[in-house]
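Fold this: Nitronate monooxygenase
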Amino acid sequence: MTDLRGLLRLPVMAAPMFLVSGPELVIAAARSGIIGAFPTQNCRTADELDAWLSTISAALGDGDQSLPWAVNLVTHRTNVRLADDLALVAKYRPPVVVTALGSPKPALETVHSYGGVVIADVADLTMARKAAVAGADGLACISAGAGGHTGALSPFAFTAAVREFFDGLLVIGGGISDGYGVAGAIAAGADLVYMGTSFLASEESRAVADYKQMVVDSGIDDLIVSAGITGTPASWLRPSLLAHGIDLDTLDVPQERDYRAGGDAVRRWKDLWAAGQGLGAVTDIRRVADIVDTLAEQYQQAAHRLTTSRSLEGTTHA
């Protein structure tokens, strides 16, 4: 699949969210004209992952005939299930595989063998350069404002810096919460936009009801970024931390990273809830299709605004 953008209604990927994204969200996103994605770590066992992939593949089609969808693979050395997950990737052939927390190299041969695309999650320029050298087809640049594990660079600065050395597929994510922001990111040089928080409170999300309601009720001032929960900087909902007795004054004590399926990280992420700076745009619980409809309308309005601006500029200088 060489041109993902040509298959999409909107240049957006519903970002793979730990313990939140499942087959329902992936299928609804793909059918709405964006890329749906989920982390394989959301499945406790390889058998469960097999069942999820079978469900998604049956709903969206197989191989070159499928609607675009993606799986997210942790390639960190602590993921002891990586070989099993890759075997299932080879079996079901998701059009896109997003690697995270490690080099994309372990996935390249498998995914390229059936014509799939490998996109590497990166949070800084050092990681971006390493992933590009490793042969990733695309880079998902996690910027400041992203929910969950987050970056420090602004989306626009990150895009400009990466485009100086990388001409592959560029996905940008971080605080982009509406179709206007999507248009701005594309105009700045991105190919696709990661959007997670916008889909947290969707009907198809696997977030529990209280989590969805907290996303709806909270605003940007209710976020706190800390590495004290998982060992990696992440954007958390402050009310969630306080509800579980977390002392915010000692939160930044480093924790050991754990990316095992079913490990301690699962328990922490299950009980403590994350979100990004796009929080304020989520005002109710809606179907994914309705969310995408709104994003598409805003995107078209932004495109019209850009066209009008160019027209006015030409008139001014005539």
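The chain has two domains: 8-207+282-316, 209-277. The mean pLDDT is 90.
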